[in-house]
Structures are given as structure tokens and as C-alpha cells.
Amino acid sequence: MRNSLALLLLTASSAIPQAAPAQNATTQRPAVPGVAFVRENYSKYEYRIPMRDGVKLFTSVYIPKDVFSDAKTYPIIMSRTPYNARPYGPDQYRDNLGPSDLFAREKFIFVYQDVRGRFMSEGDYTIIRPYKPVKNGPRDTDESTDTYDTVDWLVKNVPGNSGKVGMWGISQPGFYATAGMIDAHPALVAVSPQAPVTDYGMGDDVYHNGVFMLAHRFRFYQGFRAREGDPAPPHQTLPFDYGTPDGYDLFLRMGPFANADEKYFKQKQPDWLQNIEQLR
Fold first, then answer.
1. How much of the chain is in helix, strand and coil states, percent to nearest 5?
2. What confidence tens digit (pLDDT) does each residue in 193-220 have?
């Protein structure tokens, strides 16, 4: 990592071009590339990458087409996420790649992965899975080992990669970028965690110095649900019906926190229960 952390360009063959000074009032930033641009310039592949314990993680890889036509090589930029790596299917393309449209135009190999236990990846999911400083044998895993095993597989199997990998992520994906820096693979040379979830007690995600963010957590956990059954793409769901535009009124009618599980979560949201347990 070291001095390359802030760059997230992985010492690429050339730096991302800087925006030229505005020539006149009509100068505009280029539009987001869009699906047509991505499809024209990248080939998409889907892999199920094996971890050291045998669990396979679903991974989408977008490779610039000139890797095959001109034998070019590019660094890899990876995002590991619990929010889903859609669209699923080798013929389904994202409308943009990387942290901004400039990255897609500059060209990198882009990687998106469903973390362990989420959507199309195998295994069991633990929210913000703790790091294990001492592993119980060679098959013991955490997010650091999952990142290491993924990077190792990518640099050995993805065509046209330069042997250099970087990670980025915002919020929970920022946590996975942070976790990936621990005991990192030698090929992981740049990491950019942005507003990472790292401390539920002191950060801006669950508690503000111990004060529970009721409205934020209630809304988040209505949509962020554990997978039921085998790996599968996200299901179509209807937005939660609050029954009122007045959030204060909603929580007054809900009563004690304990009522939320019975009325709204129906014993299917362990993450909510974990948060409430910490208040006791």
C-alpha cells in the first residue's frame, strides 16, 4: 500500500488524464459511459472463485477487449460488496465501471464480488465479520483471507492483468477494502476505503457515541435482509409501507423497541436484534 494508497491507480501504464481547464461556460464533463460503451469496450466474465475452505465466491470481471486484440495488460480494480454484484449473467453489463466514469474510459480490469454468504456467493454471512488474528488451521477464514484468496486467483487466472490489484469501496464495501489490507496479498498494491464501516459505537452507522440511530437503522434493516436458501440473485421486493409520512408518529405507535421485531421484522432480521441487544 504505502505511498500508492491515495492514488488507486496501481501504478498503471498511464495516469488518469486530468480535466482540462474550462474553455468557456458551455464546457461540460463527459456523460457516464453507459451500457453500450461498456459492452463495446469490455468483455464480461463470471467466475466462482474457491476460497481456502472450499466456499466459492461469485465474481464478475470486466476485461478491456484490447487485451485480446492487442495483447495489452491492465491493473485490476476490485470492489467486494454485500449489496450485490449485479447485473448477473455474462451477457448483462453494468452501465459504468469503477469509482467514476474516468476509470472506465482510462481502462482497467474491473472486478465485483459478492462477499461470503451474500446473493450468488456460497457460505454464511456475518455482518462486518471480525478479523481473526490467530487462525485455527489453514482452512480458517475471515475477510482478510477471502480477499487474499480472491486476489491470488485473479492474478493467476484473469487474462491481461499486470499483476497489480487495487481495492475501493464506500460504507460496507469500504469495510471490505479495509479488511483486505490486513495480511494482504503482495499483488494488492493500493486500497481506497471511503467512509468505511469500522466502529458501530462511534461512527455514523448505528450509534453516535452510544445514541442509537433508530430511524436510520429501522429503514436500513427493512431492505438489508439475510439470504434464505441457496445462492441466488436479489429478489424483487416492494418498498416497506410505513403507513404514515410522519416518522415520529410511526415510532410512537410502535412503542418499545421490542415491539419492532413482532410488528415489522417478524423474527427474520437478526442484525436488528443484535443492535437492540447492545442497548441493554
1. 30, 20, 55
2. 999 998 887 777 788 888 889 999 999 9
